[in-house]
Amino acid sequence: MKRSPRVLSGSLVLVLLILILALLGGGAWLVLKLRQPKSPPAPTPEMTTDAASPIPAMFAKDLPESCRQVALVISPEDVSVMAELFLLVRKDGHSPWSIDQGPIPVTLGRSGLAWGVGEHHAPRPEGFREKREGDGCSPAGIFRVPFVFGMAPEADAKGEAPALSLPYTHLGDSIIGVDDPESQYYNQVVDSNLVPRDWNSHEPMNRFKVLYRWGAFIAHNPEGVPNLGSCIFIHIWPGPGEPTAGCTGMADADVVRVLTWLDPAKEPRLVQGIKAWQAPSIDSTVTPPILRGDDLAPDDKRP
To answer: In this structure, are residues 144 and 67 in contact, taking their beta carbons and an 8 Å threshold?
Structure first.
């Protein structure tokens, strides 16, 4: 018995209707799937925001766009001798800063930190001391690092630390640091054989055979304003937790690590400040340095 065409067409319509509904349902599911927001990628150590930058905001805004390396020293308070160093990098002047290395334990001047003269333009915080000649304070602020130095002749130094790329000064017998505010060479490291003497006090740079085995000159008070402080360096510390006269000290191996990390093509800066100036979200604490035999400089008079 033949089925009527009307019955066949009705069945076909029903089948087609079921298929359409199935397709519409799948399409609706696909639309909903596409409309669901994607989960943000998990953050990596290199991903950070300006709000969470470890550099105090008062200094971050004054860093030139060409600066892509910062050696950041953070002290728990202005009178602390102990502090920590972080080596920061960024891709360009519009990228966030990230921590490349650190923390590295360091020591500051015997009197802690005082407001220095450098590339920062922020006003001195109320109640914060101003850096003065002979005050035993390391300078707070932003500073260039124009050259490195050491006891070894340049060829030997480059052989021991081939990654050195900043200009290098060999501390021969005639190399001195002028700390006399009345001198035209105040706050300069000069070869005393090449310039006329007009100073009454100076520091023979090769006097501290161990402490100055490696170091870097910090461009604090670059115009040599009398009595605002002179001869500020990064150098080997007298020992873990022991103060300097106003420089930033660290273990021998850490000094070499920092000096070879600094790249003049990346316009490096030293930034020094206190924890209270950082963003509240930054969690950094100063950990006591671990004593190692090669950290000590027992034969040197402390600068």
So the answer is: no
